[in-house]
């Protein structure tokens, strides 16, 4: 499955991770290990690391089961990060949580917010979800600014919400619902804002 962003980021694609991505994905993770460590959630318990092929199979299973929509972020044909909708709930909730990471060399160029906007549009229009939440560590100022610019509502601080970099950390919870967009595409809304800021 491919999700394309439009307008000022025509080369941006969200697509499934495949076994062909192994070399590029592993090189990207290695190059960004120190950049991601302070922000990326992990398990507080010792766990065995998945091989790349196990990771691909796991993400495929989660997608087929309707528990997640995992994507890589590709820009001009190059893998530069990941975006996912996880903890997907159906029934009366119809909600998901979004998470993402991007190559440190591509940060600050408007790519991450465009990718998140595309994931939200896919969640609301493609999947029929009603709410998307994002947890951002309270001291991650760039990510806090990004989700606020996209119009996510700050719903408060979740104390010790996620285990990150060796400790339980406080996170802001931000969220958007279908009603917040009032029928508008979030990618379109973000493109208009980005054009005004240029």
Description:
With 198 residues, the chain is an alpha+beta fold. The chain has 7 helices and 8 strands; from the N terminus they run ββαααβββαβαββαα. The chain has helices at residues 22-31, 33-36, 52-64, 111-126, 141-149, 178-181, 186-197, and strands spanning 2-4, 12-15, 69-75, 78-89, 95-102, 131-137, 153-164, 167-177. An 8-stranded mixed β-sheet has the order 1-2-3-4-5-6-8-7, with helices on both faces. It is globular and about 45 Å long. The chain starts with a strand and ends with a helix. The model has no long low-confidence stretch (mean pLDDT 92).
Structure characteristics:
single chain, 198 residues, alpha+beta, eight-stranded mixed sheet, 7 helices, 8 strands, 32% strand
What separation lies between the terminal Cα atoms? 31 Å
Number of helices: 7
Mean pLDDT: 92
Give me the secondary-structure category.
Answer: alpha+beta
User: How many strands?
Assistant: 8
Order of helices and strands: EEHHHEEEHEHEEHH
Q: Which outline best applies?
A: globular
Strand order of the largest sheet: 1-2-3-4-5-6-8-7
Share of residues in helices: 25-40%
- Ranges where pLDDT stays below 50 over 5 or more residues in a row are none
Largest sheet: 8 strands, mixed
Rg, Cα atoms, Å: 16 Å
Q: Roughly what fraction of the amino acids lie in strands?
A: 25-35%
């Amino acid at each position: 499955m491919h999700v394309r962003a439009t307008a000022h980021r025509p080369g941006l694609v969200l697509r499934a991770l495949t076994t062909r991505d192994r070399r590029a994905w592993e090189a990207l993770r290695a190059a960004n290990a120190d950049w991601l460590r302070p922000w990326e959630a992990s398990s507080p318990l010792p766990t065995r690391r998945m091989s790349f092929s196990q990771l691909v199979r796991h993400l495929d299973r989660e997608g087929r089961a309707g528990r997640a929509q995992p994507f890589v972020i590709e820009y001009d044909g190059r893998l530069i990060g990941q975006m996912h909708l996880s903890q997907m709930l159906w029934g009366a909730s119809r909600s998901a949580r979004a998470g993402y990471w991007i190559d440190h060399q591509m940060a600050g160029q408007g790519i991450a917010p465009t990718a998140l906007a595309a994931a939200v549009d896919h969640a609301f229009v493609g999947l029929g979800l009603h709410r998307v939440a994002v947890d951002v560590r309270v001291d991650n100022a760039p990510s806090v600014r990004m989700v606020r610019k996209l119009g996510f509502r700050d719903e408060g601080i979740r104390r010790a919400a996620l285990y990150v970099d060796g400790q339980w950390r406080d996170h802001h919870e931000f969220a958007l619902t279908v009603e917040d967009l009032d029928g508008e595409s979030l990618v379109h809304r973000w493109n208009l804002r980005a054009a005004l800021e240029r």
